[in-house]
User: What shape does this take?
Amino acid sequence: MSENIVEIKNLNKWYGEFHVLKDINLSVKKGEIIVVCGPSGSGKSTLIRCINYLEKFQEGSIVVDGVQLSDDIKKIKAIREDVAMVFQHFNLFPHLSILDNLTLAPIWVKKKPKKEAVATAMKFLERVGIADQADKYPNQLSGGQQQRVAIARSLCKNPNVMLFDEPTSALDPEMVSEVLDVMIELAQEGRTMICVTHEMGFAKKVADRIIFMDAGQIVEENTPQEFFSNPESDRLKLFLEQILSH
Amino acid sequence: MAIFEQKKTRTAPSNTQGIIPWIRENLFSSPLNSIMTFLGIVFLYWIIPPFVQWAYIDANFSGTTREACTSGGACWVFVKMKMDMFMYGFYPQNEIWRLKTALGLFIVLLVAFKFIRNYKISFLLLNIYFLVAFILVNGGFFGLEHIPTDKWGGLMLTVVVAAVGIICSFPIGIIVAFGRASDLPIIRSICITYVEFIRGVPLITILFMSSIILPLFFPEGMTFDKLLRALIGITLFQAAYVAEIIRGGLQSISKGQYEAADAVGLSYWQKMLLVILPQALKVAIPNLVGAFISLFQDTTLVLIIGLFDLLAMVRITAADSTWLGMETEGYVFVTFIFWAFCFTMSRYSQKLERQFDTNLR
Assistant: This one.
């Protein structure tokens, strides 16, 4: 068994006739921070959504923490208990209070006693700085607060891998940094994170590796320093020019 | 350097608030609006005073016979004397206490629900109540005389049919809606066939089928209570409509909710029951209550298979030779009762909507 916590081999995926992911190979070590970037439609979200099987794939294999992903419902369940995801649009459950959002899965999936689940939830709400909002409903919070709640919710199951799908793209500019601060803290704690994001400052600061995707392929993969100072492919040079020129 | 200074808040100008600006803005904002307001007032003046004159000022309330009605207005004595018929149909006089007890227990239950916060206990109590109410109304246990369903009638029958229809169709409707939204083609097509078949047939046809055609398929000598057959027909009918309304609610839930529920590790049933259904039902409340209100009114159709509900009681009581020609009073009274029930349901739905509104700002 290697030390790779996520191992993706020859992953291919089609939406109908459209080939979205082409021969993706990626291994992530325990504790690594991977940032995935690329133009829209390049398949980066689809890639990380394959890791917790929100998207089916037709060819190739994904192994997470020693479990080979397949149609088997038990394996999907095992992987989803191990892998947390933070979405672009937060996807909090609007009919439940913040606290209930956090305790829902621990109580029903992990069968934890309510007291314990609440204690864990409050601990994580405190970490992301919104313990005082626990009794409110998601729509009463600002976007940045909601996203921090979503991060706290994903932390409640103590995941080995955290997936972030453009966590700051739907936020007002003033709220981006409060979410990034939480993510940076998590990164420094040594959690394995795979983040799809365009926050290049975040990538420079905490990423171990940056992956650049275009048209369903991994074009380039490098350390942040090399990635920004020595881009190899013309596609990446163009991309960097466009996002860094303003 | 520019200094940012917050300005003080002021109250709104006084000429935009209060009754007179409201009237000017809402009733006389344009010539057309003024004309409509005027016509509306004339119409109300034309309708309301004569009705009040007939139903209250000239009406007769006291007395026990037709002869007491002398003043030319409504003869409410008729309704008073036939009240038991309107309420309980042909239910035996000396057993009516059982119905009253069932009603009393229901009120006790409603009060108790105000204080019981644990929904498991509430659910249990509700089920116990249904059992007790059934034993009380139907009899046949604990020395209570069995009252066959052809003796049931009046408002009590209307309420039984509507309540059973609503309560039983609700879970069936939810399951059919889930089935129709399912990924499994066989389950989906069964549910679609069911819904489309039922919705293509009028309720009257279903009642006829359940009361006349269905027994033809049963073996000789096997009988099936007429009311029970009607209840099954109404429940299946209503379930199809409930299913479609809930399906509408399900479609309003964004894909992100399903994905988030999957991502936190919930199973299919946990996802549907804990995350999706509560939100879908919230969206569906106005339409669901609308469907239940129409069901309450549609229960009057059971007359055609020989069950005598509240509306049917008007015909029967006004056919009494001493009270001939009292239909008007009967229909006005029954209209009022129907309205009171439907209005209560409608208000309750608004209360539920507010209660489940979590988009508070």
